[in-house]
């Protein structure tokens, strides 16, 4: 195999997204925030297990924190995962379609991206009022007097991540349409 020619990775067409754009930096920052939450979860779970086994005293609030953090992590890392084309996909059929009918492939991927953007916008639309209500009402998970974890930061992470993912889907669609004008395949 010739190492001088770049390999086209399998999966959705390469977005051609510049790695150093402000939006790329934003999705990377959100990804790092999700990774920090994963590390915090790992530390909390290990401290809880250690407390249970060594001192017969579990760490309060770990279950609540993990339940809130998992959803936030998914949404914080979703836009960057999509941007870097690292999501799970099965594109065997679409790879064949892309080679034979690039315009049909572009139409399918555009439709997929527009549906993805619409779903993310719906999530933002429905979760944002819940964020405001949770913030204003001081909603929390946990037990009063023992541990209280506010829910609004985790819900806000869902809104921010879904909004960033919607923008990424729209950027993909824009790039597919701009390529069609040049006659190049996606």
Describe this structure in words.
- This protein has 186 residues and is mainly alpha-helical.
- It has one domain.
- Helix content is 71%, strand content 4%.
- It is built from five helices and two strands, in the order ααααββα.
- It has a two-stranded antiparallel ribbon with strand order 1-2.
- Strand 1 (140-143) and strand 2 form a beta hairpin.
- Helix 1 (22-55) runs antiparallel to helix 2 (62-83) and helix 2 packs parallel to helix 5.
- The protein is elongated, with a radius of gyration of 21 Å.
- The model is unreliable at 1-11 and 181-186 (pLDDT under 50).
Q: What features would you highlight for this structure?
A:
disordered C terminus, mainly alpha, disordered N terminus, 71% helix, 4% strand, 2 strands, 186 residues
Brief summary of the model shown:
The protein is built from five helices and two strands; from the N terminus they run ααααββα. The chain is mostly helical.
